[in-house]
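in:
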């Protein structure tokens, strides 16, 4: 997630939002557009890029606007889309926010295989070929994203809930915080702004009675909390985040993503993520929490019933 324009809209005034929704085919863009429409956005999908500036230059309506853009758009051009994004503010105090739905290539390939759909950039070739081409086309757009959500391990319900947390009516702080736990064995989640390594804390995995539990269980949290370094680690992390959040909010950042990693992503990182999220929520911050490895267990459902093709 990258910082927005300093004149970012106040989330308490949702009519000030223009959200451009994009990402590779099959990443869940259609689900995102439907979700935003359900929570009150005027949604326009697959408008020709040549008409987009005309739409954005019109007087802005009293309701928020969500625009779905992908490679299927008539006269799609990466350069044309970048020009729209880089202009950023089409109305006074109303910058354009880019929501980019990302997904790992192997997951996209599996989704196309399961639905037996052709990739729009490779109708007569393999889906893998089309996915590679689309990643190349969208790379400059991804780099400009204000909000990046990796849907690789998300179900449609998960994606909908995540978007409702970020884009639904809000109050209090204008900066929204997402706290993640993950396993280093599976790599870093996309879009993290801060990462804390919890692997120095003692590991509940080696306790037979705790192995099958996760960091949300009181027994696991107590075991991790008994580590001599835990209290000071928690204190310093919490104080640093408390120092930085108001500064990021003042700077104009709308979203901040914080990750805690451990070996398996089940115990230590989960406990730390839960601890920080609870503290931030108590202090009045808008917080969402994601436990990547816990969500991945037993989940094979994609964020959309069919790829966005």
């Amino acid at each position: 997630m990258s910082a927005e324009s300093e004149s970012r809209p106040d989330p308490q005034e949702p009519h000030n939002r223009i959200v451009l929704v994009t990402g590779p085919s099959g990443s869940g863009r259609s689900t995102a557009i439907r979700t935003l429409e359900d929570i009150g956005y005027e949604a326009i999908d697959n408008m020709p890029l040549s008409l987009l500036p005309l739409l954005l230059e019109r007087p802005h309506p009293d309701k928020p606007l969500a625009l779905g853009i992908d490679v299927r758009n008539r006269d799609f051009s990466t350069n044309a889309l970048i020009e729209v994004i880089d202009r950023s503010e089409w109305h006074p105090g109303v910058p354009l926010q880019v929501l980019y739905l990302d997904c790992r290539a192997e997951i996209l390939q599996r989704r196309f295989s399961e639905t037996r759909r052709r990739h729009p950039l490779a109708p007569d070739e393999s889906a893998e070929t089309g996915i590679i081409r689309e990643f190349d086309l969208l790379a400059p757009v991804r780099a400009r994203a204000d909000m990046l959500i990796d849907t690789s391990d998300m179900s449609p319900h998960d994606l909908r809930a995540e978007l409702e947390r970020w884009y639904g009516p809000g109050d209090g702080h204008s900066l929204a915080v997402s706290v993640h736990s993950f396993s280093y064995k599976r790599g870093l989640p996309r879009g993290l702004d801060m990462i804390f390594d919890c692997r120095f804390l003692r590991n509940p995995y080696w306790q037979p009675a705790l192995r099958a539990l996760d960091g949300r269980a009181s027994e696991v949290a107590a075991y991790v909390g008994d580590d001599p370094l835990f209290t000071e680690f928690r204190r310093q992390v919490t104080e640093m985040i408390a120092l930085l959040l108001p500064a990021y909010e003042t700077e104009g950042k709308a979203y901040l993503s914080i990750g805690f990693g451990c070996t398996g992503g089940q115990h230590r990182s989960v406990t730390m993520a839960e601890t920080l999220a609870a503290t931030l929520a108590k202090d009045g911050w808008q917080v969402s929490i994601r436990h990547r490895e816990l969500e991945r267990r037993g989940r094979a459902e994609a964020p959309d019933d069919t790829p966005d093709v």
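note: The CA atoms of residues 102 and 150 lie 5 Å apart.
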